[in-house]
Structures are given as structure tokens and as C-alpha cells.
Amino acid sequence: MRKRKALVVATGVALAVTGAVAPASATGGHTAGKPVVHVIATGLDNPRQLSYDNGQLYVAEAGRGGKKCLGGGPESDETCIGTTAAVTKVFWDGGAWKHYRVVDGLPSGAAKDGGFATGLDGVSALNGSVWGVETWAPPEAGVPTGPPWNKLGKLLCVAPGKATIAADISAVELRYNPHKTAVDSNPYAVLALADGRKIVADAAGNDLVAVSPDGKARPFTVFPDHDKHESVPTSLALGPDGSLYVGELNGEAAKPTARVWKVDPATGKILGWKSGFGSITGIAFNRNGDLYVSQLFASLVTKVAHGKRTNVRVPFPAGVAVDPYDGKVYVSAWSIADRNGTVLEGKKTPGGQLWKILGF
Description:
Shape: globular
Radius of gyration: 18 Å
Largest sheet: 5 strands, antiparallel
Order of helices and strands: HEEEEEEEEEEHEEEEEEEEEEEEEEEEE
């Protein structure tokens, strides 16, 4: 039976974590041939997808839940809810990296200590317009329904200090159930296209939803089960070849079966895939066509270039973005922790961070 992916998919099912990962050390220089990490933002609450737009980085923060706790039982712990999700802008100014929350106060659910959250998980910025997607919760979960909780399952148009509903993503799952299994929805990633459409990956629905410029949402691509797992699409990128690419959670670090799917952006038809990854939570391309893939439980970001794969160790990476001008790689690190860190195997982790990787 499929578990409630809207609560666990990107939160990283804690039992799948096999060991704590020490963060790489930030250094001031770059040794030729060896990637170097700089931590450019701290104090983030479960940072997930990233988007790069005209020199600005946007981070989807899933939040840290809140004080009201729901559920709990033989298969799951309590989920504590609150309005702590946000979209954050990270930028270079005055010789230093700075960040602030463009909008906050959005729905979030997390463990009691604020870790393993889900909420505003996806963000995409294009030419100054910013879009986000919120997870969904079924009525029986006991989540409030009034504002801002009415944003659950929705595509949001993000502006300074406010987020307005642009389309109902989860309604597509509820009406059509494109994957034809249990009805479940978790809008998790969004990609804004130049033609005005937005493509949303519904992780729990195992499909993509296309949203027209006037806000009409419809089924677009359904991903098949493989390797005894459902696909669970979690990440989106537009390749230099104009194709749409989709990363999925299918697979584990010990058995890397997750794929990066290639999809026709006009028709939604699946054109092919690359396999052999652990659970994927972020993908991006540089302008040379090199692919970057973050693997959550393997704690790796992998570069695929000319058939060769190279790795940089990043603790619990989520979203990946690449500066198209200088090729610098950005990744959400410690994506399963709020600003204060969470507890894994009896040890406290650092809080959510954003890393810049040079020479990768």
C-alpha cells in the first residue's frame, strides 16, 4: 500500500537514512581539479528546490511546522503544523552573500523538532516572476481549510509579502487520478517556461501537471513504475536541447534505480531516461549540457558530463541550480533540517543551508 507521500516524500523518510554526514569544510580558495564548497546561507528551514534568475537565487523553504500536532500511530510520528514555509531570495551585495524571505507565513508540516518538513517545496523564477508550489493534505488529516491553508495543493504566484493562488494542482489528481492508483497528491517542484506555462511535478501522483498562462491545470505526463517502485517525480529542469528533464525519488542509496526522465515539453511524451541514481531531489544543467543530480540519501551531487560521473559530497542535498554565466553550482544542504538542526541517530545536525560549489 502506498504511504502518505504528501507527508514523507521530500522530508526524507527518516528510516531510510543510514548514517549522519559531516559537512564539507568551506575554504577560501580553489585548488585546480578539486571542487571547493562555500556555505553562503544558513538559518534556512528545510531548504528544498532552488531557482536561478538574473543573478538572484530563490530557495523554497518547506518551513519548520508549528505547535499544533496531528496524527501519529503505528506507522508514523505526529506531524506538527504551522505557517512557517517561505520563499527566500539569496544574493550577493556589498561584498557578502545576503538573504531575506520574499514571502513567509505559508503552510508547513514537520516533526516536533522542526525537521523533515513539507510545505512550500518548489520554486521557479523566470524574468522576475516567481512561482511556488505547496504540498497537499487530505481532509482526514485534520489540517485547517481556511487561509492560508487553502493554498495547500496549489500553484502560487509569489510577490513581496504575498502569495496568491494561480492554479489548483491537486485537483487534477482528485479528478483524473492519472497514475490510476490510490488518490494522493504532493505538488513538489515547479518550472516556469518561456511560453507562459508552468510544469508541476506531483510527487505522490507520479505525474506532471501543465498549467496554462490563464491558470488551467491538466494532466501532462504519467511516469511508469519500475524496479518495484513508483516513480515519485521530485525535480524539473529545462535542458540546453530544449527538452524537459525530470528527476525522481525511485530507488535508494544502496540500490540506485532512480531515473532522470527526458520529456517533450510540447506534448509531455517521454523520450528516454538516464538511470543509476539514488533518490533524486534536484537536477540542473550548465550551458554546456552537463547534468547535475542531487541524491538525497546518498548525500551526493553528481555531475554527468560526456558519459562520466563525478561526485561532490553534500549532506542531504535537495535543489540544485547553476549560474549560466560562470557555471557555479548551488545546492540546498541539510535539506531535512530547520534552522536549528534536527536529530539523526542521536546526534544534532546543522540547520538548513545553501552551498556554492566551485570547480565542479
